[in-house]
Amino acid sequence: MGWRQRQPDHFMTQSTALRLTGLSKRFGSVVANDDVSLTLEKGEVLALLGENGAGKTTLMNMLFGHYLPEAGTVEVADESGTLHALPLGHPQAALAAGVGMVHQHFALAENINALDNITLGSEPLHGFRRNRNSAKAKIDGIIERSGLNAPLNVPVGRLSVGERQRVEILKALYRDARILVLDEPTAVLTPQEADTLFDNIKAMTKDGLSVIFISHKLREVLAFSDRIAVLRHGKKVGEMATADADEKVIARMMVGADTPKVARTEMAPGAPVLKLSSISVEGRAKRDTLKGVNLTVNAHEILGIAGISGNGQSGLASVISGLAQPSAGTITVDDQDIPKPSPGAMVKAGIGRIPEDRHHEGIVGAMSVAENMVIERLDDPAIQSRGLLKRDAIQANAEKLAKAYDVRGPGVIAASRLLSGGNIQKLILARVFERSPRLILANQPTRGLDMGAAAEVGRRLLEARERGAGVVLISEDLDEILGLADRIVVIRDGNIVEAATHDREQIGLMMAGEPT
Amino acid sequence: MIRIEPRENPSRVFAVGIPILSAVISLAFAAIPLLAAGANPITAYGEMIKGVFGSVFAVSEMLTRATPLIFTGLAAALAFRAKLWNIGAEGQLYLGAIAAVAIGSGVLDISGILLLPLIIVLGAAAGAAGMMAPTYLKVRFGADEVVTTLLLNFIILIFLQMMLEGPLQDPMGLGWPQSAPVLDQGVLPPLMDRMRVHSGLILALVLAAIAQFMLARSVWGFKLRAVGENAAAARHAGINVRRSLFGVAAISGALAGLAGVSEVAGLKGYLTADLSPGFGYTGIVVAMLAGLSPVGVVIAALFIASVFVGADSMSRAMGVSSFLADLVVSMSLLCVLVGGFLAKYRILRTKGATA
Lengths: 516, 355
Fold this sequence. Notes:
The complex is a heterodimer. Chain A is an alpha/beta fold. Helices cover 32% and strands 25% of the residues of chain A. In chain A, the strands form 5 sheets. Chain A has a 6-stranded mixed beta sheet with strand order 6-7-8-3-9-10, sandwiched between helices. In chain A, strands 16-19-20-13-21-22 form a 6-stranded mixed beta sheet, with helices on both faces. In chain A, helix 14 packs parallel to helix 15 (451-467). Chain A is globular, with a radius of gyration of 24 Å. Chain B is mainly α. Chain B has a single domain, classed as ABC transporter involved in vitamin B12 uptake, BtuC. Helices cover 69% and strands 3% of the residues of chain B. Chain B contains 14 helices and 2 strands, in the order βααααααααααααααβ. Chain B has a two-stranded antiparallel ribbon. Chain B starts with a strand and ends in a 6-residue tail after the last strand. Chain A binds chain B through residues 27-28, 68, 87-90, 92-93, 96, 321-323, 342-344, 346-347, 353, 355, 360-367, 371, 375-376, 378-379, 384, 387-389, 391, 418, and chain B through 8-9, 217-220, 222-223, 225-226, 229-230, 232-240, 350, 352, 354-355.
């Protein structure tokens, strides 16, 4: 195992680096944070856990001055260890006090190199010359101490995701951050890259850096943090030393109840449902490109597609959902050739698609829940006759599906963007599963969902498999694939390799492209 | 320090309230130049109201002015709903007008009761054709239709002048750049004796009602709204985005073309190069004021026509320039744009000095 238990070996200099006291924030009638207090010791790694919408991001945004809390204080220690209250609502003050943040979505300019990205913003806007050499020397020093290796003189657009993340961290450290907040840092990394990241973090904490890392992956939290704080519904519901915690305790704390376990029974695969033969796609970017992919998905089978994000998953999903035209190769569904793939043709062929970006591709946010539930079947005579919508039927259909799939929100005639992320996903599940598709493409189906909603997605996918559907599960969460898939293939650089194993370590190596 | 935050759930009250408030505010602001010109604003607005509602003739004039604005307002509103920014209604209006006189004034030898329907259909088709090229350039090459439709207006205007001094010139017109009059069978009949308001208004109102119905109730309208609100999701759901765009482009162009038909065959009787005092552009203001709703277009067109006609009448009565009307119309557009922003975002004042 590449995951080692962290030794609490650096507790020798106990002093508080950051203290949040009684922070509260509400948005309209929603209480995002209610009297949350947290302390972070110098050189400590604190894991901030919580489901989506628990208030983790709001809390961090108050720390950074992006939001103005209604009550509470933020105190940050200076170099000598004395705590000073931070003026609230001022991002510049937080930066000046040495608080740095690495967001889940990187804020890097792709067309300029890492060095310039790191120094960008921390030099005078109207200066005529920049002192690149002293900047370079400072960054080299940081790299040496932390082990955060990244090529500095290559445009960031050409760096791997792991390298970009290191550039983001370097950027924060370059600005003399003494407190670093990492928002879901491992979401885009292979298990091996995640290991390296945590090794680097460990080296940095020895230097006196304090780290808050936001996550919902219990495994890495247990392996790499010193202390755990759990938020639920905007309140801090628990705090403990990692040494005293286990997965079950934390999960219960996050959800407030025991998490539903997805039951999975072994099942013999049936006849092939989807066949991709030598499919190539010439995409604009690497993530859209496929190079002669052969893939068969059988009935009663969940096929897991593992891979580092950006290795062709988007291309594969686009082909199966009909959005991309392959430049070569054939697609057959149930032995029927699909000569001219389009989203409409794929839906007709019996493919249900759960898109990766549910807000952007899954729903039309300004249109109602009911309309979004029928958007894929506008030529269905149950929905329309002679070009006119049957509004009662659409309404009745929506009421029925909302009930069956537990879509909660302000009602089926309300705009769908008012639904929470989990309920938007349930809307899409309802739309896909009600048609009893032969094949289901589930692209990152649980990303951003809370544990309850994620378990529901898994349960529905297993149900479809039981019914005889084939499922293509594309996920960046290897745990999810290991838990659900009957068969796993690894996608790398637009190619697909059969994994023939459920071993995490081996799959990780295949994802990174190393010979096994 | 001021901070701008998006509103999570903009109220529906804004949708109706903002245009009305904008109209009132723009009239209130217009009092400032009125005062500067030495006029009493209350008396001036009294004259305006009299000029619009004071007599049957006044109302007829207002409705006559509103008619083309309903057509061009609908043209803009439908296209904008699909996020197709058709700024070319002015040119498409002239294409419709050219088609109307080409068929209707005896240049081509068609007559009888079929003439009027033919003028309407071909005028609409000409307007629609004018919107095809920019739409093709948009879906094929990603050319910005704001630029292409706008520039096409000037090309069409020059083409119009060429026609009016060439094949379409009235042989009896003493060399003026104007077309021969539309034949009697091709005229949109007036609605009242000795009044200028004509049946083009009825056509406009019927089309507005149809547009409203189709947007909300038809599969076509469903697809149009989906494409406009989120083209990526529409495409993913299997809606043919290109076809939807071409469809709405044709309808938008056709509506603008009908504005030209209505002006030529209902009001002027013949075509000159100053047929439209910018109805195509004012249609954009109408559509924005209307919140892109077809029924709203009718109301907004009536408002703007009232401002124009009322300002004319006030200017005659009080000796204040009628450019005031342009001022009110432009300010109402600005108010709607600012109001639309305030409906989507809230502005918060944060306390304390900047760090």
